[in-house]
Amino acid sequence: MLYREAGQFKASYQEDAQIFPIRQDRVGFIALLAFFFVVVPMIANQYWLQAILTPVLIFSLAALGLNILTGYAGQLSLGSAAFMAVGAFATYNFMLRIDGIPFLVAVVLGGLCAAGVGILFGLPSLRIKGFYLAVATLAAQFFIVWVLVKFPWFSNYSSSGVITAQEINILGFAFNTPETKYLLTLLVVTVLALAAKNMVRSTTGRKWMAVRDMDVAAEVIGIRLMRTKLQAFAVSSFYCGVAGALYAYTYLGTVEPEGFNLDLSFKILFMIIIGGVGSILGSFLGAAFIVLLPVFLNIFLHSFVGAALPPGFGSNLELMIFGGLIIFFLIVEPHGMARLWQIGKEKLRLWPFPH
Amino acid sequence: MKFSLRKSMVVGAAVTGLLATGYAAAQEQFVGLASYRVGPFGSNGASLYGGWIDYMQMVNERDGGVNGVKLTWEECETEYNNARGVECYERLKNRGATGNSVFQPLSTGITYSVLDRVAQDKIPMVTIGYGRTDAADGRVFPWVFPMITTYWSQASAIVNYIGSKEGGNEKLKGKKIALLFHDSAYGRESHAVLDKLAERYGYELTKIPVANPGNEQQAQWLQIRQLRPDYTILWGWGVMNPTALRTAARTGYPREKIVGVWWSGSEEDTIPAGDAAKGYVAAGFNPAGKNFPVVQDIQKHVYAKNRGNMEDKDRVGSVLYNRGVVHGIITVEAMRVAQEKFGKGKPLTGEQMRWGFENLKIDEKRLAALGASGFMPEMQITCEDHEGAGMVKFQQWDGAKWNVVSDWVKGDRQLVRGMIEESAAAYAKEKGITPRDCSKEM
Asked: One digit per residue, pLDDT tens: chain B, 442 residues?
């Protein structure tokens, strides 16, 4: 009843091509942005901002990066965490070694470094596909972390190989409270997510999808495979790199190379599988699911049944429920939570009078 | 699939309610435990946190709390994962009447992740036997306490122990020592100290890395066999330790010549290796055993009433369990010290707890009163020195249990302290911190 596009006519190409062609979606999206930009910083406490919302946003960005590569361009990758590490360590070194470099420039340069490394490790994708490519990107995962530990230059000769993020200062304004850090993260994530949405709707994204669906056919219609695949690797790694920089600067503050291990790569992969492969929204839903569910389960179990159970049992039960829910979601909706959202929207159009 | 709206609202409300409620109660001191009972080091975490919780339970049962202030605690599962650890830190920090008293994550990674936050939130962080070594300089790191001993002190103490075996450190000249280390930041911690000592004493140090997780060490031990080192220092982690011992047995390297660090010296490391572990020596800042009066008290006041935390009661008195008890003792003693100053029988804030840790002094007399003579070294924390003891004991595995084979061995404090100050000063410069003037602290 409310969600119906009857009477909305598109009179120009511009209107036809906008991201949200339905007015209700536009209004909803703007309301959502307003909520997260204005209302959340006012009502949320430090716990929500620092421990819940900021990591969800950062992991959403990393998942978005992987989704561009895996979901849109069809190249399976297990190196996302390593590209995050490149972004974090590169940003740190730019901040450290170039005096007075603006933070956002350092982040972009960090992302570009990650993109360069991503291209390098994307080269095998020209010859190998699917699971074999996943194994090749696994090399990136181990190699990059090893390099960061092996050469102390990257961590400025810190005895234990960790880096400590410098203070963020943009145009004289210090981002040192949970609210400002959250807003900065949100801003970067919003801009990059909108850019990604536009990218996948444009020629670039269509080429990626053509390569994903059948690379021989794509080549026949004149898409240059090498360029397209490497472009996907570069853009994806750039996103992961920026996510890594935010992970170090607005979330943890101090990071070690081992923090960006294979587990984290798998986690990001699970985010896009649960959220929806080949969907921008799915990256956000998946990240929220994977980051928040264990936390809520932990709080829930500790508060309600924790006292009655042996101490280790709650933690194990949590893992079982978490795993069970993942299987459940994949059975009822193999295309991820983004698909659920889509089905919900279709139902909403007919509501309350489904035929 | 269908979600019932009402059901999801009830669950949602319950979850938000839980997040919002504080556990308000007077005369209670809250300790937030960022524990791990699952994940790669889950069994270690279960023993450690079990010992710690049991000690606090015992203080509650036997003494009725600390001067009447009952200890309360809540666990939060970190899975040894940095992001989860930060979430736990944030979740626990405002619990209880006065907030979290102390944060002890038992993970170097989580320690680094919350290093900046503890100073902002004014919650002391105590990292016993792990964490950031240069935080021992309390002038630069007022809120962090890497207590009892740091990795650098341990490395130096191990060299001293080997020296004493050979009949004096000067006899180390020309000896060959191999360092078999976990190839990570943790494993590399020792390099600088061991290199410096090699220069001083003239032993020949060969560093042999083992990639994580370390369940394949054929090549490394082949290298050791060719090298024939007089001693091998095992700086291992998790599954790497039993594998090292088994492979050493297969290559015929005498286990008596292997000296492990404290994270390589627990029952969890030796029992899986079976007979291969016999004769192996490892450092530790607490011995194993159930015969200490403090462990006996836990048996009497906690386990006899069936309130113990350990599911496997046989692990009471193991190295890691006792290490958990040491964590408990230090936490509770700091509360006592702080209550002396800020009022007995009152819950303490994080700032007051920090004062307690900074003025903590546990001497032989106090250890005897606690029933912990020989259970942990005597120690004194000051504003400058947040390490306090820098001593370890060496234990040998006889195939069934650990036996103490040395007295407390001290590292080269002067050398280690110099390195700590140098590193802390570099950190202070990078972060723009002005070190505190300790003469002005009271």
From this structure: 344 545 554 554 444 444 444 443 458 999 999 999 887 788 888 999 999 999 999 999 999 999 999 999 988 988 888 889 999 999 998 888 888 999 999 888 899 889 888 988 999 999 998 888 889 999 999 999 999 889 999 999 999 999 999 988 889 999 999 999 988 778 888 888 999 999 999 999 999 999 877 888 999 999 999 999 999 999 998 889 999 999 999 999 999 999 999 999 999 899 999 999 999 999 999 999 999 999 999 999 999 988 888 888 888 999 999 999 999 999 999 999 999 999 888 899 999 999 999 999 999 999 999 999 989 999 999 999 999 888 899 999 999 999 999 999 998 888 999 999 998 998 888 888 899 988 887 6
Interface list for A 136-165 with B (CB within 8 A): 146, 149, 156, 159-162, 164
Residue type, B239: V
Q: How far is CA B425 from CA A158, B141, B420, B421, B430, in A?
A: 12, 10, 8, 6, 9
Q: How far is B402 from chain A (nearest CA, A)?
A: 26
Using DSSP, state whether B375 is helix, strand or coil: coil
Cβ contacts (< 8 Å) between B185 and chain A: which residues? 149, 160-162, 256-258
Report yes or no on B15 lying in a domain: no
ipTM rounded to 2 decimals: 0.86
Residue B142 lies in a domain: yes
Q: What is the CATH number of the domain that holds B161?
A: 3.40.50.2300
| CB-CB neighbors (< 8 A) of B38 in chain A | 312, 315-316, 318-319
Q: Which residues pair with A164 in a beta bridge?
A: A254
- Using alpha carbons, list the distances in angstroms from residue B99 to A103, B60, B103, B131: 34, 19, 11, 23
> What's the Cα-to-Cα distance from A90 to each of A98, A112, A155, A352, B330, rounded to whole Å?
12, 9, 10, 53, 40
Q: Which domain holds residue B181?
A: 151-284+393-411
Q: Which residues from chain B sit within 8 angstroms of residue A253, using beta carbons?
A: 113, 115-117
Residue B387 falls inside a structural domain: no
Residue of B nearest to A300 (CA): B15
Domains in chain B, number: 2
Residue B10 lies in a domain: no
